[in-house]
Amino acid sequence: MDSKQQKVINPLGYAPIGALLLRFALPSVVGMLVNAIYNIVDQIFIGRGVGYLGNAATTIAFPIVTIILAVSTLLGAGGSAYAALKLGEHDEEAAEQTCGNVFVLSVLSGVVLAIVGLLCLDPLVKMFGASENTLEYARQYTSIILLAAPFNVLGVSMSNMARTDGNPNLSMYSIVVGALLNVALDPLFIFVFHWDVAGAAIATAISQVVSAVILVVYFTKKSKMRLHRRTMRLNAGICRNMSILGISSCVLQLASTVLNIVLNNVLVTYGNQSEVGGDIALSAMGIVMKISMIIISVCIGIGVGSQPILGYNRGARQLKRVRSAYLLALCVSVSVTIVGWILCETIPEQILLLFGKENQTFMDFAVRSMRIFLGGIFFAGAQIVTTNYFQATGQPLKANFMSTLRQVLLLIPLLFILPRFMGLDGVLYAGLIADLVTGAVVVFVVGIEVLKLTRQIAKEEKAA
Asked: What is the Cα–Cα distance from 154 to 174, expressed in whole angstroms?
């Protein structure tokens, strides 16, 4: 260990990159998967207990879920990235104040989301694709999810801060405990109490409350970045800086929200013009999107887990470690998406049967949707990790471009254009084309960024 490394106390600055990525990314991956399972488990139990109309209701509510997640990641990912940079600069006071600001803003924003969402409930669910058949189910599910929004925002944002605090395992445990509770309560509320869709939403809400409480207790009693009254005073500079770093994650989720709204309405419109039907098309695509969310969640977990490593070493000007962490995260994430793509292409029927056995029309369209719409998902891992890399290393403009490329710049326009010529099939091919074009751009961007890092490293080594 050289003299520069000896000055570094935090293991993020000197521990082997592979071991660090495993330590930080594995709990993050488990946490993200479990967060995805909140929705997946609901869909499985609803599919078996209520049917495809109940599943369509959760698809309708999904934009609300992504809006809540957008706010959570704006605060959590941005706060985590900024705190990691400050820790790399050995400014522990600024890092601790960032944690306090994240807590306060999470509670306030969650309350605002709940109030506004409940006041505008009917217009929202109708805008998100609710029909006469699904309206009541959508109202029930969405209203309960909104009531739990303050705890949801708080849990997601503080789990990000726990990773930067050096405790990625706690981030995982808090979500796992909530998920296990969700799995236990779902069948009880749906099949025993006969609360149907509302029961699934209540189970999810209780799970989110428990996860948030676990994290708050940690930050008030055991963390390094402790919650104090003085750190909870909002600081304009900290709020601005962490918002700049978190905006790409927020934009990614907001783009997903807009995408879900457009996708739901296009599916209903062109589904009703086909033999499939709008409600079946909406429900089937909802399941396909949930399956893709599992694959994407693993990649997000890898990207988020790499952020403290990237941010700390960028702040400490250890660029070799930045490059190593980025490339390793990139390789692992791409491998995951390739495996997920192979499974979706080869055994779609077996995967779909987990959600219940519907009529043949439903199954045929769902299989076709999975194979075509997710036909280019093997590129998703590179895009996600590269977005997280730009965010962690203080390059918000590049992060924003990468986060909006697929959903906003490509997929949404394609959803408006292709179905006019291809009908319902146009929806499916829009996803495939958007992924392939995004992949080509990402390959180019990754090459440029790695070359730039290599030149900076060579320049510093020559200067030394």
From this structure: 12
**Residue 399 and residue 386: Cα distance in Å, rounded?**
8
Q: How far apart are CA 219 and CA 210, in angstroms?
A: 15
Which amino acid would we find at residue 243?
A: S
- Asked if 404 and 396 count as a contact pair (C-beta separation under 8 A), the reply is no
> Which residue shows structure tokens 């000896």?
6
Whole-angstrom Cα distance, residue 332 to residue 260? 28
* Alpha carbon distances (Å) from 29 to 297, 379, 399, 433: 7, 18, 21, 27
Distances in Å between the Cα of 37 and the Cα atoms of 177, 185, 298, 418 are 12, 14, 12, 32
Q: How confident is the model at residue 464 (pLDDT cuts 50, 70, 90)?
A: low
- State both tokens at 137: 């189910």
CA proximity to 155, closest of 200, 96, 220, 106: 106
End-to-end CA distance of the chain: 16
Q: Is 365 exposed, middle or buried (0-12, 13-18, 19+ CB in 10 A)?
A: buried
Give the pLDDT confidence of 31-64 residue by residue, as tens digits.
777 767 666 776 778 877 877 777 777 778 878 8
pLDDT digits (tens, 9 = 90+) for 298-316: 998 899 889 889 988 888 8
pLDDT in tens, 407-423: 889 999 999 999 999 99
Residue found under tokens 């058949």: 133
Nearest to 66 by CA among 257, 211, 352, 346: 257
